[in-house]
Design goal:
The chain has 15 helices and 26 strands. By secondary structure, it is an alpha+beta fold. It has 2 domains: about 300 residues, Rossmann fold, CATH 3.40.50.1820; about 200 residues, Jelly Rolls. The strands form 6 sheets. Strands 16, 17, 18, 20, 23, 25 and 26 form a 7-stranded antiparallel sheet that branches. Helix 3 packs across helix 4. The longest helix has 13 residues. InterPro entries: AB_hydrolase_fold (IPR029058), CocE/Ser_esterase (IPR005674), Galactose-bd-like_sf (IPR008979), Xaa-Pro-like_dom (IPR000383), Xaa-Pro_dipept_C (IPR013736), Xaa-Pro_dipeptidyl-ppase/CocE (IPR050585). GO terms for molecular function: hydrolase activity. This is CocE/NonD family hydrolase.
Length: about 575
Amino acid sequence: MAEIRRLDAGGQTIAVRKDLRVPMRDGVTLAADVYSGVEDKPRPALVALSPYGKELQALALTMPPQRRPSPMWDGCIEAGDIASVVAEDYAHVIGDLRGSGASDGEHIGNYNAGGVPLGQDAYDFIEWVADQPWCDGNVGMIGISYFGSMQVIAAAERPPSLKAIFVSGGHYDFYETTYHGGVLWFMPRAAREGRGGDSGWAFTDRIKSRMLETYSPEEIEKRVAERLADPDVAAWPNLVHLLHYPTNHEAWFDIVLNEFDGEWYEERNPVNLARNIEIPVYLQIDQGRGWTVDGHIELFETLSGPKKLVIGSYPPMQSRPWVEEHDAMFRWYEYWLKGVDNGIMDEPAVSVFVEGSREVVTAEQWPPKDVEYRSLYLRPRRTLSPEPELMGPEHAAPDGFYQAPLTVTDQVEILTWSTAPFEDPTELIGSGAAHLFAEIDQPDTNFILRLWDAAPNGSRQLITTGFLKASHRELDERTTEGNPYHPHTRAVPVEPGAIEEYVVRLYPFAATFRPGHRLVVELSNDEPLADEHNALLPPDAFHLPVGRPVTHKIYRDALHPSRLVLPFTTRNSE
């Protein structure tokens, strides 16, 4: 029996059980801390699991919540507000995954792909918690991001005592988490290395590369050479260093070495695993980082049991320590863990905050309203119009820009097109597409699009984004109007000088453009180094820049109808 300590926090006395050892079926033990009320009685438990370290999560007791751009914001303090959990009469159980923190065992690959499945460990951990005298046998889970993904992985294993989960800001399709439209995203580096506003994993010498464990040294050398042949990778010092010294950060090495989707990512993809989930699932995500919104919708549509989807308002990053959504979470668990009929399941399954109008629309499905996909065409003089261009390319000459690599410039070139001011409130909810007819003078580039709501006073807010690596332009059978999908299973180099149609997925969003506001779309092949949106993100939340000089010509004429395809709503919500 672990010694029970007491501490005062949040105006209450909390009982603390430190460094409990939780046995796994293969003999490995994981470390856990338990926080609860001091009254000696069983109560429901909320379990948090990650490799970020249980001691870091304890800062929720002493650090006021920090918002970006605070330099004290730490992206890994994600297990929830301990004092609030205890005040609601739950046991808050925070565990270190195998190979991290104070736990035993080896952790092979990101989310343990290739080693002992983390879902298996989560099953054993949850059933151990349910069997403790301080737990009444009813278990839920808590935490965002990695903690949120672990909830889905755990629920797919169907531990009998796990009655429901509440997931906020998780990552699901692991390829789409790390490569957006085929463009490498740096935030996974931050979460593992401990940089860019993150403490990172609680590393031990038992975290290992799946690639190094799987392939021979000769095969690794061959794959590293192939990756370094990509000019984008070869121009980025951190990646060159990583590929030569992979044991420094093994999980990041695995991601960088696997630039295509397929079995390596799909084996334990939570979206695939979610088909096994039957317990109730609550999904919550804020707008502003479109790939996470996309993932929550995909997961919601995969689930077959009781479910909720709540898409909240901008900005995209929650506080650290994480404290938002706790009221909704406690209401969810009051119903599913405590048996209190509070009416939550009588409410619509989908709730969406609409930027601009600041209204909340509800329905039983996504999108919450019927939509009609309409086109806004890129036109001369950097305008967007519902009417297509009538002149051919000999008269409507293409727009264009030349982007030097960031090794020689700090200037990111941006093309901009804008609508006229809207005369009436105009609501859009759903995903979208950008059809770009483009010519480049290199075998590859990035297409990065950002859509803004620009107010008459000059202020603006990001609405959605889209990313596509030109060599990943192939579409697959899931593609429909306004809803393109790319398989990302191979690269097809571009023929320099050829005009190609690139269809860029615009991540799901919900916005009303008020009278006098404009819709503005920006196109570049690198991200701006600093602007009003990026200041809200962690410093490492950017994408791998293009490592070669590229000239881009964007054709938008009668033969090349470059356009946005957007989801205009057509009826009121239920």
